[in-house]
Amino acid sequence: MRLLIFVLILILSGIFSCSKKQTVNFAQYQQEIRHWRQERLHRLTRKDGWLSLAGLFWLHEGENTFGFGKGNDIRFPGKEGPSRLGSITLQAGSIRLHVVPEVTVYIADKVVRDTVLHSDADGRPTVMRFASYLWYVIKRGERYAIRLKNTKNPAIKNFKGIAYFPIDLRWRIPAKFVAYRPAKPVSIPTVLGTTVQDKAPGYVQFKIKGRVFRLDVFAESASDTLSTIFADETNGKETYGAGRFLEIDPPDAKGMTVIDFNKAYNPPCAFTEFATCPMPPKENILAIRITAGEKYSGQGHHH
Question: What domains sit in the chain, N to C, each tagged with a CATH number?
Answer without folding.
Answer: 50-157 (2.60.200.20), 161-303 (no CATH)
